[in-house]
């Protein structure tokens, strides 16, 4: 750790997630000014030098690297932030941990449960601070949902359901793999919507509703062949375009999950709902400042779903921003995670989800994919 | 009054409102079976015999008339229901009252305040039962709004606003006047949207929020000339296509009202909202089974507008219909008004709004039209 | 068949469904006046004479029976309408068919696929007119969805999902079985939410999206024991309180269905959504006059889900009712089915779903229950 | 102007607006990296040194001032950004202009039309770049509305309506004036909701729908006396708590506007709607990423309001942010205005609204306040 309580960041990967994290590091200084630890954008790494250079210029990184191993080896880096495609997560994270660096890793941990387990073991052996970027937990409405559930207002839980619906891969002429499209290459991504989208739904579900014990899943690849950008050949598509699963939670509730990139009309419709004996909660990423809440304790003739606009100063994180009624956006979830990570350095706690906590999501994903492959229920716990 | 507690109805007018009322009379037997008084469809009157005959066949009226004076003169009619264009309301109502008949009159009472006042005087002199068909009061969600307000939950009232937005007369080729279009003929209708649509908004407002003391209004006729169906000539349009007004209520709150037939995209969007110190209420005719309610007494971080689906047995009128969650429609407001009228015969009370109560709406309408004509505030009380 | 084109109805069962059907028969005369065949409420049958008498008085049935076999034997009955609990459907339907009566049967056909198959065979052997009351098909918005799909606007279908969420049995003190609660007695109902609620979702899905080929299901009974109203004893609950299933349709699309009576805050939230290559459709029973539609052919920056208020005269069935913007309710779906049945007498066609068509829903329900019991995928076709 | 195309900013005022502007300056570098001009946070000015110091530390300003005249006199300042209470706008802006500085001024220009006119004259005489922070124009959905209107899709305009509803001053114990509450002190703010909230509505309306010619307004102060923070005395409240007005636009359309801080349940509900012959548009600040659009050219049975989620790369400003479906927030409107101001330096154009353009909003506000005071229609043009 640097003196002055700087946290010197080395970012690996300059894609979409590299941008969201960089923005998070830059803004936390303005909106969480009282924190002792301040992120410093020390270095960014990309294979292509020009790309690294442009990114560093845009975001204010002090230096660049083109070999991630060199970045990890640098003494002036306290924490490594992994924003590469999924197939590089494990190798980098393990190396970074072994080098004694803190590790902040994009989700999902890795392509398979096995690969993810290796990362967790390495991190825990090294004893370094770590977190996984399941950012949606830190949207104020989602955090408020967690607080309501923890308060016990819902009573016994009966149902949990979540969807993540997109429509961006319907066009059969969209190529697979390569620049900007590695999420469609099974070798790189590990899976399709399961690792990319359902992992978010599962992370939130485990956080809000506890462990999943058994699953039965179904997957489909609607477009069977696509041109691969790297080879130029038409190749079989290896990822799951859509995945649904039913499950049971440890607390006795039933779960139902669905994700697809073929739901025409939905861009990023992540929704979840939880039904308890005494109250229910719903949320929708397309209207992310709002939480819907039904309280059965309300007066009989006046019961109804409340549309809570989560923009008041006494609601999670919102004392940092503007005034009541003025919404924030997607990117703020990353600012909040950076802030919570910085806070964890100060308090000595952990910044959830840790690698260990995130591993359970990979475990569920693995069971889901196995169940779909075998056409049978799979037991997790 | 007939023995057997029959209420023998004579209906004058076979248009849209004739249908809604007839349906109301027919259904009340099935859904309010315990009531002592039962409507009997004794006679229907229309100028054209074939039209009266077809209507009688369709709705089960026992006989027809082509001269409303004959209908009123019949001994076997207890109550006269006036569904004619507005220009006939006064003459018929006054004659019916003088003949000792109960009178149920379509809204608005008449074309002007003066004309309406004559009707009220005649009705009160005759001492006959009467009601005016401001049907929206009896949609369950609107009645629930009244109950909430009467309970005092809102505290001091600050604001009342209402809109009634339609788009059916935008086409400049739509003719005016005559069959199906008398609402566009100022001589027949008295006014345009003010008497037709704003009168509904005003009736609800007076019921929910008390008297209006002063108004400032603005009207516009967007299409200045239209072919008149009866003359075949292009003639100036005399009605107001749109009307807005600001007002003050006796209770100190401010009002804002708007109505138009030129709001592209809205078919019959009647909405109102009332803001009180402690709570607020909103309603929308396009989603008529729902009432929105905000209660400032809710726990701070969980405050939000509640969407109350008014379909439970303990909500107004809903014990008569189906099971929770299954909505009713526009027409049910008329069934409820018939039921309440029948009940008033049994209990000896009145069925609001009476002619006297409805007169206040005409008074406000008159002040609104006068204000718009003069470009000045008008005082009512 | 009676002369005068009367259709003389004998109704068996005076519960909730007896009311909705009776209302349908009564109203069709007013709103479909041009039809040749007119329903006549000839007789109603209930085990308890006083109950049958009260129902006949309320709805205008000419006579009563307390033994359904006598009703079926009457010469003055053309059509038998079965509104009994599910365990009586088969016996009555088969006897009615054998007596040459037309049969209109409440859904689902029977408790099991086997039992339902017997009914279909009997009906087809007798060659009598028949229909099953899957009423939701005839809500205007749902019929419009069918028309859009049939027009080919959606292109290749990827996803179908439907939910039917209620919350009325959460209270563990609610007894099971007996008067008003036979839906909670497995011996009478055959199953819980699967036959009661999912059957509606499945009927609509088969109609809109074609046959289902394979299913994997999960059921749960949250409250394991309840007092039985008839015995007074605490007894095991045999029904499914909740049921979810995944499936594949013949057209290659994926399905996801869920039903429960434990979703706090939802009274009767039947929703469905279908995602096609070019367009998508959504619907929600709590806002039944509305259909949501996304058309990918809309101009790029202006694409969005359209909220279609299905109340215009050129939309299905709506030329029968009021004027644009004025909604109808749940009960109208039954009026429409009666009208379509009457029309089928005139045209010689069938009134869907026929017993044969409805059998497929029972087949899917059976596969769902079997799958849940066995924890394995089941193949239907 | 500095070499290197720096734009050296001097910010005066450290309140809520100081924060939103500072954030705008800081972020534009990351999200508009190709721009030649880059804002540099040179100095911030506040009367209290410790406050200025803390603000400078939090936002990265290089230096501080406690006397705004010194800030204006500095050679290393290119542009002065005025975030003070309204009563200081004119003096500072005029002095800054005379000193040859560019001026970016918070809205409204000043307390009165007269005062504002003086600012415009000074700015134009000095010939310096200028803009007024009517930030809502640059929310992507609002900019999209402008583009739709400019494309002519709406045809002849009939109606424009806008509301800005808040509820934060209902509590009668809230003091007036002083730190954080200058908006409630008429001497400082000039007016209440008219200058604060209606000015936003008017700015958008003038931009989207052209000039307003006549107005009739009504204002109210619900709580007549409040403790003043600075004097400690109970004093009369001079501001308007609520203001409504009707108006006519030059294009022949009718306008209706309302603003209040007494609408319980609404935090910052700025909504507008515009109805044209062929299409209509609606927007709502509480759901700021969405635009509602009704196109009468859609196929008859499929017409409906479209809910456009304005988060695609081809929609205004959204190519700068994330991926489709992921919303942005309130603060982004300021980032966009900074970016457009920087762009105007590069292109030589102006950044709307200029002082001259913003003056028209003050003119309307003045007419509104005069109309309310006099109880008469006021003519503007």
UniProtKB/TrEMBL annotation, chains A, B, C, D:
GO molecular function: nucleotide binding; oxidoreductase activity
Residues of the Gfo/Idh/MocA-like oxidoreductase N-terminal domain: 7-132
Segments forming domain GFO/IDH/MocA-like oxidoreductase: 144-282
Cited InterPro entries: Gfo/Idh/MocA-like_OxRdtase_N, Gfo/Idh/MocA_oxidrdct_glycsds, GFO_IDH_MocA-like_dom, NAD(P)-bd_dom_sf
Pfam families xref list: GFO_IDH_MocA, GFO_IDH_MocA_C3
Keywords: Oxidoreductase
Record-given protein name: Predicted dehydrogenase
